[in-house]
Structure formats: structure tokens, C-alpha cells
Amino acid sequence: MATNMFKTNLIEKVLFAIIYFIFSTTNTTKAFDTSSCASQPDLTIIPIYGKCSPFKPTPGPWADTIINMASKDPARLDYLASFVARRKPGSSAPTASGQVFNIGGYVVRARLGTPGQLMFMVLDTSTDEAWVPCTCCTGCLSTSTPFSPTASATYGGSITCSATKCYQGRGAQTCPAGPGSTSACIFNQSYGGVMFSATLVHDSISLARETISKYSFGCVNSVSGGSIPAQGLLGLGRGPLSLFSQSLSLYSGVFSYCLPSFRSYYFSGSLKLGLSGQPRRIQTTPLLRNPRRPSLYYVNLTGVSVGRVRVPLPREFLAFNPNTGSGTIIDSGTVITRFVQPVYNAIRDEFRRQVKGPFSSLGAFDTCFEKSYERLAPIMKLHFEGLDLKLPFENSLIHSSSGSLACLAMAAAPNNVNSVLNVIANLQQQNLRILFDTVNNKVGIARELCN
Ligand SMILES: *[C@@H]1O[C@H](CO)[C@@H](O)[C@H](O)[C@H]1NC(C)=O
Ligand SMILES: *[C@@H]1O[C@H](CO)[C@@H](O)[C@H](O)[C@H]1NC(C)=O
């Protein structure tokens, strides 16, 4: 009797919880309660169109948002390919001008200067430098919240063009008055086809409770050919100007993130900086260093399985080659995983063999099929040296907004001269903790529901 009562009670509680959940979520949709968002000094990773992001979306069906965002991947891949060191100045021509370039799907909160000026900066693991629009900026979005150097007591002014730090940045301009000059360090960059010019300055930056003093970052003075992220970008690459290179004593070159599901409009993931709080036991794969592309996190992808089949892939398309830049990187700014064409074709063909057609295309996805055949969809595995990553279905399939189609959520890299790079992207990283140890050259991956 007592057990029965307990059971009834439990069922009631569960029902109540479900109803309460439905009620509270519908309620939040209406009230758009962001009060819990901005107050804490934490390191949540916020989907750029999520509830706690200041970049208000037209939420719409999330599948449409992803398809729209994925359509900008080719410009992203071009950007990644442009990293070959020692390009001739001015040779990085804009590739897709005139658009708002919503690169990167996630933002984190940082405070620049003293008192801290709150910025929602795009997280970018393939860029070293951080940059923010400054008050003087011409061509910046009118909606951007610029950083005001004059309002900061710790603003350290610009770095000179002859300082080592200056030419560690991409697109650094030569000193107008020759070496030894004390003019400001200016760098011009193309970010996804949008040109901007910034002065390298220094001031403190606070992430959660920690402050890095004299952090060097770009103060954007002018933008042309489109828009850059409205509150700047935080570079988490591994080159000399990145956050980790500038904070070695604080974070020991270690960080991890867990990206929330794209669907989780109400939720956030987390960024963890430094050794504390990192998973102790985690499978790892070596991090490879390409001196010609020092910002990028290269890993050794050795194969891909579709269901039980290990897809035969031509070795040369997976092999790491520092000279050509070929190989595989993990990136937080590309929306869907891109394989070079021959690799993608082989994976896709095997996938199609195991699922029932006919197949249609939707945006960047060329393997969409009737959702009722989804039960036939094989599990995909990415094999890295020393680490096998089994992709949960939410990381390998995407549904159309109408819900009638399911698509293989990967694509081929754009077919141009630079396509030698395989990119493991956001959608495939959802709800995984990805740990980067830049000192011991390791990447760890573990399943974590961080929604
Ligand atoms: C860098 O950008 C500034 C501002 O747009 C421009 O005046 C300058 O000519 C650019 N330099 C180069 C080498 O493109
Ligand atoms: C990648 O892993 C394979 C298999 O373990 C190995 O033969 C190869 O040397 C590795 N490549 C690099 C660049 O470490």
C-alpha cells in the first residue's frame, strides 16, 4: 500500500514537473526573461541567437538558422585557408563582400578595461588576436557596443609598430617611418571577406573572475565591405597573440569548451580556462603543430566509420602536411563539418548505401531523406589517433524545419584551390567536452550534456 501510494505520488510529481516545465518554458518565451543571463561573472558559451545573446535573432525554425549559417561556411573555409604564413601584403582579397558575416555560432562575456566594459565576443579557436570595435570606428555596425579607451583607467595605449608583438599579428602594416619607429601598430585583416583596420592596443581583460593585465588586442578603427561581429571576437587560437599565449602563467595553456545544442535556445555551454575543473580521465589524441599555420588546432584524423563499415579513404586526403596545410582541424567557427571532396564523397556514398533513398538536397546538405527512414541511419565514428569519437545522432543528422526530412549534417569543402583542409565543426561538437592542452600537445574529447 505504502509503495503504491508512493508510486502514485511519484507519477503525480513527474506529471507536475512536466507540466511545470512546459508552462515555464512557454512563459519564458513570452516574457523573454534575460535577468538570469548577464549578472553572473561566468564563462557560459551562449549560442549567438540564444536567449542570453544580445544579438537578437528572428528565432524561426532552428533548422533554417543552421542552413543559413552553414551557407557562410565557404567564406569561413576560405578564411582558414588564407592562414598560410607570409602572404604578400594585400593579397588576401575579399571573398564575399557586402554581407553581415555571422561567423561563429557562439559568444562569451568578457570585460575590457577598468571598470570593465561588457562585451559579448565571438569565440574563435582558429584566430589568435582578439579585436573589438572601438568608439572611433567608422563603418562599424550602428548596433555595436564599442569599447571606449578613454573610459578605461587601465588603458595602456597602442603598441608600437616596431614591437615584436606587432608583426606577430596577421596583416600587420610595415612601420611608415621604418624600423625603430614609435608609430602605432596597425593591422589590416580580412575576416570572412570583410576588411577591417585595427590598432594593436593593450588593456586588461576579465573573463569570469580572472583578470589578465596588459592584454594586447585590436581596437578596430574602420570596417569596409560588410560587418564584423558587433562586439568583437576573442581569439582562442594557439599562436603568439592568442589569449593562452598571453596568459600562460594563469591558464597553463589549457582550456576546454562544451558547445550546447544549436536547438537549445534557452541553454548555454561552458568555457573552462586553466587546469582546474577539467575532466581528469579523458581520451586524448595528439595535437599537431603546423608552423605555417600556427593558430590552427590540427589533429590526426585517421579514418571515418559509417555503421560497421570503415570507409576506405585515400590517405593523402587525410594526411597532415605542414607545407600544403592539408590535414584536419577542430574549429569553433565553422557550422558543419567539411571534408575535402573525395573524402566527403566516399563517406556520403557509404551512408547512402545504408539508408533508403531517394535523396534530395537542402542548403549545403546533399543527402536528405524521408525522416521515417531515420531508424536506418548508421552511427558515424571519427577515428583520431588514439581516440574514437562516436557521434550521437544529433551530431550527425539534422532535420528540415518542416520535420519531414532528415539530412546527413556534413558537406564537402568548397571546391577551390585551397580545399586541402578537413574541418571538424560546431554541429559535430555539440554536447562534447573538447579539451585543448597546448603545452602538452593533446586534445581530449568526452561526451558531456552541457545543454
Ligand atoms: C589598411 O586600412 C586602412 C584603413 O582602411 C587604409 O587606409 C590602408 O590603406 C590599408 N593598408 C593597406 C596596405 O591595405
Ligand atoms: C597519424 O596516425 C597514424 C596512425 O597512427 C600514423 O601512422 C601517422 O604517422 C600519424 N601522423 C602524424 C602526422 O602524426
TrEMBL record:
Q: Which PROSITE patterns match?
A: PEPTIDASE_A1 (PS51767)
Recorded hits in Pfam families, A to Z, give:
TAXi_C (PF14541), TAXi_N (PF14543)
Q: Which InterPro entries match?
A: Aspartic_peptidase_A1, PEPTIDASE_A1, Peptidase_aspartic_dom_sf, TAXi_C, TAXi_N
Instruction: List the taxonomic lineage.
Output: Eukaryota, Viridiplantae, Streptophyta, Embryophyta, Tracheophyta
Q: Tell me its family.
A: Belongs to the peptidase A1 family.
Coiled coil residues, start to end: none
The residues covered by the Peptidase A1 domain are 106-446
Its name, as the record gives it, is Peptidase A1 domain-containing protein
Indicate the secretion signal residues.
none
Record's PANTHER family?
ASPARTYL PROTEASE AED3-LIKE, ASPARTYL PROTEASES
Q: Which domain of life is it from?
A: Eukaryota
